[in-house]
From TrEMBL:
Protein origin, superkingdom: Bacteria
Keyword rRNA-binding belongs to the record: no
Domain Glycosyl hydrolase family 36 C-terminal: 626-702
Record field: catalytic activity: Hydrolysis of terminal, non-reducing alpha-D-galactose residues in alpha-D-galactosides, including galactose oligosaccharides, galactomannans and galactolipids
Pfam families: Glyco_hydro_36C, Glyco_hydro_36N, Melibiase
Lineage per the UniProt record: Bacteria, Bacillati, Actinomycetota, Actinomycetes, Kitasatosporales
GO molecular function: alpha-galactosidase activity
Name of protein: Alpha-galactosidase
Length: 716
């Protein structure tokens, strides 16, 4: 059960989740200050954390860590979470507390809103906190309102600042990457000073992802305290971790990058995106599981649906898509057991390669003389759903759209319009652009019976200007994202059966914001199964397997040239939402039959992968096997996937210790029939049978023995 309580005597608010507490108060200067985030406390105990202010030297000022939303103002020298410039040029903010509200916006959810205003200027600030019965995640966001008659500028408006308790050391876990190498996990000491994770690209980015985990350097996968936070925002963002000279660590974060500001006109309100925080004392793996559960219960629109096995045409046919070729592939895909057939790039007017066509979203008449309907009909007749690739935010200069509306792109006067992949970014912040995109998308879906969109976004912003509006270049960073969200939301409302995959040249736009209105994500254009193991490892830190699309493609891999066995490629893709992206026209009968067998096998275990809980048994850190375990919530069924190269120097493979089983139970291996005691599996481990040689892999499906009557039915 979650709860929010307030003690008027001590002035302390206590937010309680099932296993954690979060406490705050307002200090004598009127500033909202942090007291605790960690193991459970009572309200009385939290009150004891309020310490009288001591004497400080004239050089110190306030500590950069310890406020709920440190402002630019007073004797503060750390990173401000809130910076404003009022109409007369004054920049400092001074807190005046107005009151608080505690409510229950939905069953099982409690919300606290702390309301403030500036002591003099017409700016209202509300700090929002939400807790839920079924998660330890605390959601936070901030709402700013200009209550005056003159415009003001918000130079920085973070969603929240998180403060950690004092520890001797701190460590940060986060991901970095680039196109084709997203989500590579790093775990390193937090340096003294300021550490910035950011995207200045207008999208979440391949290069960093807006989440982090902090620990005291003593946390492991299965033990130890970890404080983590993830931002629900799909544009530019900025997280700063501070390790202060007084030995504290905090993190402030929100939308927008350095140098951008937000105009806030009279009467206007700005609500920041949510920044969710999670504390656990059970290690990184438990933190990930808690995030997965949170994404499922509070982020995804359709968490209970089983994601279908899809086929995607991109690596198979590239831009060469036409009705006959796709119909032929669809027949093979259906035979393989595919449930959703997705036609990728190349289907629309003028699209022969990446130099033209974006913006002209009608089917190419040479390739689809009768439009898309005959292909969609055939795919449906074959028993599959139909999906289509779109890139609504983009335009090629060589397109009718651009010739008609050259002012619709992000641009500055007298500046080069920098092309990346021969394309420019449409200014989605403009009402007419967003309306145009919504219009053709909703018609496309309705007129063709489309069940699924792969929504792509293939370049970062540049020359991010909007000359038609004086405040345009400041406004567009947030308005662009809000309009993107609106268009997706309206499409979903128009077509309740429509499912959407978020893609941005692979994993350039994966975050809690986009996931609250899409169904799955394309983590990377790198489909080399060997590389994918580390990409998936990074992805799994916050995001659950049920949104992690994974294609089996052909070898040698188009990007890396590496060849690994079909079985290994399948086993890697089975760790998420299995899909096929190879050229099925070239698959041999043996490959097709092995593929069909593995697709069928996936269907018997995907309920464990997509809806179960995940334990990373061994990360991709050394020569040994990498292994991931999924277990159904009732601990009845288990799937372990193991991937490895040949052990160096012939060293024996280490035993894998399973996790999270019912210790008193026995589990039977569905393939071999062998029965294992859970206490042996978890306490001493098992060495799964793996073929020798490079790139060997296996899957181990276990069912609790007392439940063996349903063995192999693949119930989901
Ligand atoms: C991006 C996507 C790919 C594919 C191509 C098509 O790179 O990530 O999967 O859709 O665009 O141009």
């Amino acid at each position: 059960m979650s709860a929010i309580s307030f003690d008027p005597a001590s002035g302390v608010w206590l937010l309680s989740t099932a296993r954690t507490s979060y406490a705050l108060w307002i200090d004598p200067t009127g500033a909202p200050c942090h007291l605790a985030w960690g193991p459970p406390l009572t309200l009385a105990a939290a009150g004891r954390l309020v310490l009288p202010a001591g004497e400080v030297s004239s050089f110190e000022g306030r500590s950069p860590a310890g406020e709920e939303l440190p402002v630019d103002g007073g004797a503060r020298y750390g990173v401000p979470s809130l910076r404003v410039r009022f109409a007369d040029g004054t920049r400092a903010f001074e807190w005046a507390h107005l009151g608080h509200r505690i409510g229950e916006p939905a069953p099982g959810t409690k919300e606290l809103a702390l309301e403030f205003r500036d002591r003099h200027y017409p700016l209202a600030v509300a700090l929002h906190y939400r807790v839920h019965d079924d998660t330890d995640v605390v959601e936070r966001w901030t709402v700013l309102r200009n209550t005056g008659r003159q415009p003001m500028a918000v130079l920085r408006a973070d969603s929240a600042a998180w403060t950690l308790p004092p520890r001797d050391h701190y460590r940060i876990s986060h991901v970095t990457g680039q196109w084709s190498a997203e989500g590579l996990l790093h775990r390193e000491p937090v340096p003294h000073g300021e550490t910035v994770l950011t995207s200045r690209r207008g999208i979440t980015s391949h290069h960093a992802n807006p989440w982090l985990m902090l620990d005291a350097g003593d946390c492991g996968e299965d033990r130890g305290e970890v404080w983590s936070a993830a931002l629900a925002w799909s544009g530019s963002w900025h997280l700063t971790v501070q390790r202060t000279p007084d030995g504290r660590t905090s993190c402030t974060g929100g939308a927008g990058h350095d140098g951008t500001e937000l105009p806030l006109g009279p009467g206007q309100e700005y609500a920041t995106p949510r920044f969710a925080g999670l504390y656990t004392d059970r290690g990184f793996s438990a933190a990930s599981r808690a995030w997965h559960a949170y994404v499922r219960s509070h982020v995804l629109p359709h968490p209970d649906e089983m994601r279908p096995v899809l086929f995607n045409s991109w690596e198979a046919t590239g831009f060469e898509v036409d009705e006959a070729g796709q119909k032929a592939l669809a027949v093979r895909a259906a035979q393989l057991g595919v449930e959703l057939y997705v036609v990728d790039d190349g289907w629309f007017r003028g699209r022969r390669d990446d130099s033209a066509g974006l913006g002209d979203w009608t089917p190419g008449t040479e390739r689809f003389p009768r439009g898309l309907v005959p292909l969609v009909g055939e795919v449906h007749r074959l028993g599959m759903r139909f999906g289509l690739w779109v890139e609504p935010e983009m335009v090629n200069p060589d397109s009718d759209l651009y010739r008609a509306h050259p002012d619709w792109v992000l641009h500055f006067p007298h500046r080069t319009r920098t092309e990346l992949r021969n394309q420019l970014v449409l200014n989605f912040a403009r009402d007419d652009v967003a309306e145009w995109a919504y219009g053709w998308l909703t018609r496309l879906v309705a007129d063709n019976g489309i069940d699924f969109l792969k929504w792509d976004m293939n370049r970062a912003f540049s020359e991010a200007g909007w000359p038609a509006r004086e405040d345009g270049q400041d406004l567009l960073w947030t308005r662009y994202v809000h309009h993107l969200y609106d268009v997706i939301d309206r499409l979903r409302a128009d077509h309740p059966g429509l499912r959407i995959e978020t893609c941005s040249g692979g994993g350039g736009r994966v975050d809690l914001g986009i996931l609250s209105r899409t169904d799955q994500a394309w983590p990377s254009d790198n489909t080399d199964a060997a590389d994918r193991v580390s990409i998936q490892h990074g992805f799994s830190q916050i995001y659950p397997a049920q949104v992690m699309a994974a294609w089996v493609t052909d070898v040698p891999n188009q990007l890396t040239g590496r060849s690994v066995p079909l079985r290994y490629r399948f086993h890697v893709a089975m760790a998420g939402v299995l899909a096929v992206g190879g050229d099925l026209a070239r698959w041999t009968p043996e490959e097709l039959s092995e593929g069909a067998e593995l697709v069928a096998q996936y269907k018997t275990v995907r309920h464990i992968v997509q809806h179960g809980v995940q334990h990373r048994l061994r990360g991709p850190v050394d020569d040994g096997p990498t292994a991931v375990q999924y277990t159904t919530a009732d601990r009845r069924e288990v799937l372990v996937l193991v991937w490895q190269r040949a052990p160096r120097h012939g060293t024996p493979r280490p035993a894998l210790r399973l996790a999270g089983l019912d210790p008193t139970a026995c589990y039977r291996d569905v393939t071999t029939g062998a029965v294992h005691h859970a206490c042996v599996l978890t306490g001493y481990g098992i060495a799964p049978e793996l073929p020798t040689g490079d790139w060997s892999s296996t899957s181990l499906h276990l069912i609790r023995v007392d439940d063996m009557t349903t063995e192999g039915t693949g119930s989901h």
